[in-house]
Amino acid sequence: AQKITQTQPGMFVQEKEAVTLDCTYDTSDPSYGLFWYKQPSSGEMIFLIYQGSYDQQNATEGRYSLNFQKARKSANLVISASQLGDSAMYFCAMREGPRAGNNRKLIWGLGTSLAVNP
Amino acid sequence: DGGITQSPKYLFRKEGQNVTLSCEQNLNHDAMYWYRQDPGQGLRLIYYSQIVNDFQKGDIAEGYSVSREKKESFPLTVTSAQKNPTAFYLCASSIVGASSYNEQFFGPGTRLTVL
């Protein structure tokens, strides 16, 4: 079974509008972390935002926010006021276990391709 | 500027040849990682290292080898035993510990094509 599922292979959004990229995860570990990365056409992966399983509030970083619904095991990325430069692949990833633990491995989703239209 | 460098950006290799991909970081990170990415796919972990002179196999280590003789460097060798080596290879590094998110920082990648 997939541990990270991104159900939207491709998304379109109009410039200046908000868009939500879906991510659901599956783990039995009570301690975990969720990451979102952006991959432009150049190929480099850029870290966007992090949510820990015990964090009380949803993470926010500038125009990025994470809609964390623990009971539903979802961690959707919300991009507000889309810009042309937001066109890229977006990946959701999960670390099982606590930050200070020995597990360094991330489990990756297959990604969502976002195109921002002018 | 701190960061991760990978070289070369594009690499062509004849079938049956070994090739080594370079990865260097000046972020003073303890952990380093190698990933493989195929078209339309997520990242798959090849090898990772949390400390100098130690490394662990990831999910797809067969046909690859690594070394970690220095903190800054984590070269990946793609051997002739790797059946389908054409792919995009990404190197990453991270802090180890509870004081950060342990997010991984990535290099620009190397695109390997086997002719």
Which tags fit this structure?
heterodimer, A: mainly beta, 4-stranded antiparallel β-sheet, 12 strands, globular, B: 115 residues, 7-stranded mixed β-sheet
Short description:
The complex is a heterodimer of chains A (118) and B (115). Helices cover 0% and strands 49% of the residues of chain A.
Please write out the topology:
The complex is a heterodimer of chains A (118) and B (115).
Chain A: E1 4-5, E2 10-14, E3 19-21, E4 24-25, E5 32-39, E6 46-52, E7 60-61, E8 64-69, E9 74-79, E10 88-96, E11 107-108, E12 112-117
Parallel strand pairs in A: 2-12
Antiparallel strand pairs in A: 1-4, 3-9, 5-6, 5-10, 7-8, 8-9, 10-11, 10-12
Chain B: E1 4-7, E2 10-13, E3 19-25, E4 31-37, E5 43-51, E6 54-57, E7 64-66, E8 76-78, E9 87-94, E10 105-106, E11 110-114
Parallel strand pairs in B: 2-11
Antiparallel strand pairs in B: 1-3, 3-8, 4-5, 4-9, 5-6, 7-8, 9-10, 9-11
Report on the structure:
The complex is a heterodimer of chains A (118) and B (115). Chain A has strands at 4-5, 10-14, 19-21, 24-25, 32-39, 46-52, 60-61, 64-69, 74-79, 88-96, 107-108, 112-117. Chain A has 118 residues and is mainly β. The model of chain A has no long low-confidence stretch (mean pLDDT 93). In chain A, strands 2, 5, 6, 10, 11 and 12 form a 6-stranded mixed β-sheet that branches. A 4-stranded antiparallel β-sheet of chain A has the order 3-9-8-7, with no helix packed on it. Chain A has a two-stranded antiparallel ribbon with strand order 1-4. In chain A, strand 7 and strand 8 form a beta hairpin. Chain A is built from no helices and 12 strands. In chain B, the strands form 2 sheets. In chain B, strands 2, 4, 5, 6, 9, 10 and 11 form a 7-stranded mixed β-sheet that branches. Chain B has a 4-stranded antiparallel β-sheet with strand order 1-3-8-7, with no helix packed on it. In chain B, strand 4 and strand 5 form a beta hairpin. Chain B is globular, with a radius of gyration of 14 Å. The model of chain B has no long low-confidence stretch (mean pLDDT 91). At the A-B interface, strand 5, strand 6 and strand 10 of A face strand 5, strand 9 and strand 10 of B.
